[in-house]
Amino acid sequence: MSDQSDLISLRQSYLDRISGAADADTLEQVRLAALGKKGEISGMMKELGRMTPEERQTRGAELNRLRDEVDTALRARKQGLEDAALDARLKDEWLDVTLPGRPRPQGSIHPVSQVTEEVTAIFADMGFRVAEGPQIESDWFNFDALNIPPEHPARQEHDTFFMARAEGDLRPPHVLRTHTSPVQIRAMQATGAPIRVIAPGRVYRMDMDQTHAPMFHQVEGLALGRDISMANLKWTLEEFCRAFFELDEVELRFRASHFPFTEPSAEVDIRCSWEGGKLTLGQGNSWLEILGSGMVHPKVLAAGGIDPDQWQGFAFGMGIDRIAMLKYGIPDLRAFFESDLRWLRHYGFAAGDVPSVAGGLSR
Amino acid sequence: MKFTLSWLKEHLDTTASLDAITEALTDLGLEVEGVTDPASRLKSFTIAKVIEAVQHPDADRLRVCKVMTDEGEKQIVCGAPNARAGITVVLAKPGDYVPGLDVTLSVGKIRGVESHGMMASERELELSDEHNGIIELSSGEVGQKFVDWLALNRPEAVDPVIEIKITPNRPDALGVHGVARDLAARGLGVLKPIADVSVPGTFPSPIKVVIAPEVAEKAPFFSGRLIRSVENGPSPEWLQKRLTAIGLRPINTLVDITNFFTFDLNRPLHVFDAAKVKGDLHVRPSAPGEELLALDGKTYAFAPGTMIIADDQGPESIAGIMGGEHSGCSDETTDVFLESAYWDPIAIATVGRALKVNSDARYRFERGADPAFTQKGLELATQMILDLCGGEPSEVVTAGAIPDTTRSYALDPARVISLVGMEIPEAEQRRTLEALGFRLEGDQAFVPSWRPDVLGSADLVEEVARIASLTKLQGQPLPRPQAGVPQPVLTPLQRRESAARRLAASLGYNECVTYSFIDQPAAALFGGGADAVRIENPISSEMTHMRPDLLPGLLAAAARNQARGFMDLALFECGPVFAGGEPGEQDLHLTAILVGNTTPRDPYASRRKVDIYDAKADAEAVLAEIGAPAKAQINRKLAAWWHPGRAGNVALGPNALATFGEIHPKVVRHFGIKGTVVAFTVRIAAVPLPKVRTPSRPALALSGLQAVERDFAFVVDPQVEALTLVNAAAGADKALIERVTVFDQFTGLEGGKKSIAITARLQPKDKTLTDAEIEAVSAKIVDKVSKATGGVLRG
C-alpha cells in the first residue's frame, strides 16, 4: 500500500517542471508525461480499479486532487507563455502615430445656403411654407401686381435689369426680379388665403460697389388670415431675430416708411452697439436697419386673387447675405460670389451642420 | 432734404428739443439721415471778463491776464494783440476740447507762468476764419453759456442742420412746411399757417402764356406774370444763410427766391429775364433738331416731341425741370417773368430720364407738387420779389386749368385697429387726419391736394398708424396655424435640393455661389448666349447673358483659384440655369468639378489625378441621395462641352438624370485652367418622385441558403463596354444571379484587346446548388457574354 508521501514528491516534481518549461513544446511534453494517456498520473489512476473500495476512496480523492492541481498549473503556464510571446511581438509592432491620417477632402456649405436653411427652420416652426418663383420675371409680377405702376418713381429706384426683347415682340421686357416679392403674388394665386409662406432666393439690381453686388439674396415673408395685424408682424420678427441671432433679448424698432406693396409700411431696426468698432446686436444705443415690412396693400391682395375685404396680413423682406454678414461677422458682400477657396473654407459650414430648431441653428 | 432747426421753426411753433424733433421725424417716416449741431461742440464754453492784462515777464508778445470766470478769478496767459482789461471774452477751461485746435486743454506753464485755460478766437471755435485776436463780445454776463449767448445774438451760428430721407410717396414733405405739418400732427408744436397773399397787377403782362394742345395733358396749368423795374443783385444775408446752410449756392435775389420757395413750400418756380424773351411763352413739343443750353451749363438735344417752353426764338426752358442759360436772370435783370406751373408727374419723369437731367424742380414735380398751391405760390413769390427787389407786378396770365384732385375715402376706425393691432380711439384717428389736412365729413375723409399718394382707405390707416407711432407698437403673438407639432413645410424638390447640396459637401466639394449672368462667349460654349437670354442693360461686359449651365461659373472660379496657387480643387454649385428668357424657363442643377489631384501628397502614396470615375461615383452618390432609381442606363448623347469619349449620361430612357465625365479640352483652355477637369451635373428636378410616398419599407427577404460567387475573366475588343458585359452575364439566369460586378480590368493585351473580370453572385432560393447546377449557370454566362460582346473566357 502506498502512502501520501509519493504523491507529495510527485506533485512537487511536476509543478517544478511546469514552472521551468520555457516554451509551449516543453510544456506539452510535461503535460503528456503527467496527464497524457500514458502519463504517470494517468497510469496511477488506472491502478485504482485494483484497490479495495476503502483504499480507492482515499487514494482516488488524492489522485483527483493531484491531477486537477497539475492541470491548473499547466493551463496557467500556457497562458503565461502565450502572454509573454504576444508582449514580445507587440513590442516590435510600433508605428509612428504622429504621422497624419490619410487625407480626406473637406467640403463646405456656402453661408447663403446655410443661412437660408436657418431662416427656413425658424419660419417652418411658425407654420410658414417655402414658396418659389422664377428669377426672370414678367414686369407684371415684379412691379404692377405689387402696386408699382409703370411710371411709379419706385421703379427707377429698383435699378432693374431688363431682358432683351426680340424685334417685333411688343410686350414690356421681362426683368430679372428685383426682389422676392413677386413670389407673394404667385403663392397667393396658387393657394389663396389663409397662407403663410417664405420665399428665399436670388434677386438682381444694377448696383456694384463696396457694399453692393448686382446679385444678392432675399427672403420674403407673407402671412394672411382674417385678423393678422401689424402687432403680429412685430412679434413674428422679434421672435425671428431672437432665434436667428441666438440672443436672449432683442429689441426691434418699427419706423414708418413706404413700400408700394404694403400699407402701413415700416422699416425695422434692431438695437445694437458699435462700441470699440465692433458690432454687437441686442444691446447698446444704436439702431441698425435690417428689413422692410408692412401690411399687404389691398391692391396687392387683389392682384393675388384674394378679397381684401375678407383677408388681411403682413409681408416682409430681408437680405439673406446681409443677415449672414451680421450674424457671422463676414465683412464684404462681393466676396460671397467670388468663390475664393480660402473664403469658402473659412466662412463655409460643415456638411453635417444642419440647422434645426431642436438642435440649435449654429454650432 | 435738408433744413435747419430755425427754418423749421418758421413753420412750427414749438418748444420741443432737437432730440425730440429728430426722433419724431424718424418715427414718422421722415428718416433722419444726419444732424449737424454746431452747439454740441461749443457746450462747455462760458463767458468771462478780463480784469487786468500785464506784460509777461519773459515774452514780449504775451500778456498775463486776470480773468473773472464763473469759478472765480483765474490767471490766463494770452498772446492775442487785443487781450486787454475790460473786454468780455469766451473762456475755454482746462479739460475743455477746442475744436479749431483739436486739443483738450490742461493747466499749463507758458514761459514759467501758470495759465488756467484760454480765451478763444472765432477760428478756434470754428465759428469763422477770423484769427486776428480773441473774441470780444458786445454783451454777456460772466458765467453765461456761450451757446446761449450765440442763440440770442447769432442764432445762425448754432442752428442745427437736419437731413431727412423722403420716401417717394411723400412729395408734401419736400418742403419745410410739410415737414412741420407732420410734426404738428404728432403733437410737437403748432403749425403756422401760410399767409394768404394776393398782389393785384397794375398792367397787363406783355408776355402771354400758351399751352399747345399736343401737351395739354402733360402741362395742365401754366401761370406767370411780369414784374418790371426790379433791382436784382445779391440777396439779403438771412436768405443767403438759409440757402448756404443746406448746401445751396446763393446766386442773385431772384434766383435765390425761387430756390427758397422750392425748399420752403415745395413750390418750384422759374424766373425768366423778360428782356431776353421774344414774344410769348409756349409750352409745346420740341421740333426736330431743337436744343437748349441749360442753367447747369450743359446742352440738351431734345428728341422731337419733348415738352419744352419756347419763345419766338426757340427753346428757353426744359419745362418743369430746368431753365435755359440764355433767358436766365442776372444782376442786370430789370424785368422778370415769374413762372408757376403744375406739370404732370409722369411727363416730367419721362423727360428727365430721357435727357438724364436732374434738378430740385424735376425731383419735386415728378413726385407731385401741390396743384392747388400753384397760384398761391405765384402770389407769395411776387410779394417776396417786391419786398426784396422792388418793382411793379403785371396782372397774372394763365393757360389751362388746375386739375381737380378732390376725392374721399371711408375711414373705418375698427379696421384701423384690426390692421395695426393698436387701440387708437376713433376721435384720435379723426384728429390725426384733420391735423394732416384731411377734411372729414361723416366717415368720408377728403384728401388734401398736397397728398397725391393717398389713394384709398388703406392709406388712411397708414396715416393714422404713422402719427400714432409705430415705435410704440407692441408685438402680439401670431398663433400657429394649427395647434401641436408643425407640419413639414418643404416640397420634395426643396428637400432634395438641400440633401444634394449637403451630400456634395460631405463628398469633399466646396460650395460656391456664382453670378447668374456670364459673358456671351462663355455662355455660347455651353449652348447659351442667344438673344433671348441677353440682358438689355448689363452692368458689365462679363455679365451679359443668363447662364445656360453652372459649369462656366465654376470653371472661371477654378481658374481664379489656380492663379492663387490652389491646384487641387473640388467645387460645386447648386442653383438655377436658364434655357430661355421667359419666366419659368429655368432649371435647377447641381454641378461639381474636380481639378488636379484627389488629395494632397501623403506618406501612403494615396495621391492620384482625379478621373471620370471619381466624378461618376459622386454623381451616383448624389443621385442615390435624392432617390434616383439604382437601375439607370448610361448613354453617350453628350453636349459639345464634354470630352466625346470620356463622358456619359446616367439616364432613365430619354431622361438624362446626370452627366459625368471630362470637360472638353478646348473648353478647359478657354477658361485658362491647367490640367484636366472632370465634372458632373445632376438635374435635380429630372429625378422622378416616387408615385406613392410611404415611410414603410418592403419586407426583407433573407435566404438561409449559402450564396455562391464565381469569377470570370473575358478577353474583349477595346471598345466593348463593361456594362454590356455585365448585363449579358446577369441575363443568363435572372432568378439565380443576384448581382454581377466588375472587379478587374486589364488593357493592352495582344491585338489591343482587354480583359474584364467579373464576379457573379448566385443566390439559390429553395435548395443548395449542386456542382452540376453551378457549372450549368457558368456555362450560360460565358455563352451570353460571348454572344453579346464577342468576348472569350480568358485561359
Helix content of chain A: 40-55%
**Biggest interface found:** A-B, 97 and 105 residues
Instruction: Report the CATH architecture of the largest domain in chain B.
Output: 2-Layer Sandwich
CATH domain fold name of the largest domain in chain B:
BirA Bifunctional Protein, domain 2
SSE class of chain B:
alpha+beta
Counting structural domains of chain B, the number is 6
Strand order of the largest sheet of chain B: 30-33-34-38-37-36-35
What's the Cα radius of gyration of chain B? Answer: 42 Å
Shape of chain A: rod-shaped
How many distinct domains of chain A?
A: 2
CATH fold title of the largest domain in chain A: BirA Bifunctional Protein, domain 2
Strand content of chain A: 15-25%
Count of discrete alpha- or pi-helical segments spanning 4 or more residues of chain A = 12
* Unreliable stretches covering 5 or more consecutive residues of chain B: none
* Residue windows where pLDDT falls under 50 for at least 5 positions of chain A: none
Distance between the termini of chain A: 85 Å
Per DSSP E runs of 2 or more residues, the count of β-strands of chain B stands at 42
If you average the pLDDT of chain A, what whole number results?
Answer: 92
